[in-house]
Amino acid sequence: MRNPPYWKIIARFLKRTAKKKRKHDMNDSQKPRFDTLCVHAGVEPEPVTGAIMTPIFQTSTYVQQGPGEHKGYDYSRGGNPTRTALEASLAALEGASHAISFASGLAAVQAVVQTLEPGAHVIVCDDVYGGTGRLFRRLYAKYGLSFEFVDMRDPANVARALRKETRLVWVETPTNPLLHIVDIAAVCDIARKAGALSVVDNTFASPIFQSPLSLGADVVMHSSTKYLGGHSDLIGGVLMTSNANLAEQLRFVQFAGGAVNAPHECFLLLRSVKTLALRMRKHHENALKVAEALVGMKRVKEVLFPGLATHPQHDVARRQMSGYAGMVSMRLDGSFDDVKTFFSRLRVFALAESLGGVESLVNHPETMTHASVPPDHRVKIGITHDLIRFSVGIEDSDDLVEDIRRAVNF
Ligand SMILES: *Cc1c(COP(=O)(O)O)cnc(C)c1O
Question: Which among 63, 235, 323, 377 could disulfide-bond with 209, CB atoms 3.0 to 4.6 Å apart, if both were Cys?
């Protein structure tokens, strides 16, 4: 039997839905729990064919019934149904009313900066993601914005850095690559009282383990390239907020500049989010095992992991996180050549930038991800030749521990 022509299906569907209310609205009465949200939020069976997966609406434009009369979409820079489904899903994960999905994490960061007026002062945590620091220092500092990098492990440093022009406080926690913890509630409270917006880069914790909006943040940002995507096969970013006015400004920045992610990327992200809760639990378990095994290993000088009771801010981490995700850093007792030897002896961990994928990666921040941080600042905060960062994947933890133990034994 041949399928009916597409327009016939649509005609039939339109007649039916005119009468029937949708059954699959997750927002109705029962509030689903987290694992259920990951699988279902934002997505419904495709109304025309019943396809359970959201289709990839690979289209730039939409046919209009009359001038300015359309079904809610007129051009894919402004909106695309696959992106809409993704945004609904991501908003639900962070408990936000709005999510705006971008072409990259840094495009999302940039959108926040582009809502500021010249003259604004921004306080940034000093151990911020290298690319975020580069965007602030090298690109936006010349547009009349000033950025001040402070150690946010002590919230009092944020209070001290406030000026009357402070409009934004940029928090990242756990930080990259030193895995410092910033007390989100304390810093966001300082920002709010000063009339500044607070943004939390929640990439490392993922929405599964940390909910900054519930701790007082105005905006949550993710590089969806990392845990949200989870399979090292796409670049993306997202902003979530429950502030409607701010969401409108951010959407305008995106619409005006066009840093949207493509329908296929949105589809891949929608698919990835379904397993986010499962993956994060495994990342967390494996990282804890790797961190515990690293303590006391030959040549391992220091282990940086917020899940260890010896981490200086373990108490804050326990209070604001329900798991510690998969990032572990350590310091190797030896020269840069020793570090290179260690890398060359690893078999399961692959030497690469990025993080948050199912496969385990190892990275040398000084020469790789954080090479763009000014050298004096790098040394000041402790990104030195001996620092090694692991993104612990979802392989068997025994294989991961053995890989490191063997590689470090030379
Ligand atoms: C990767 C990353 C970013 C930047 O995201 P892109 O998707 O690479 O543009 C920002 N913050 C953190 C914490 C990251 O790990």
Answer: 323
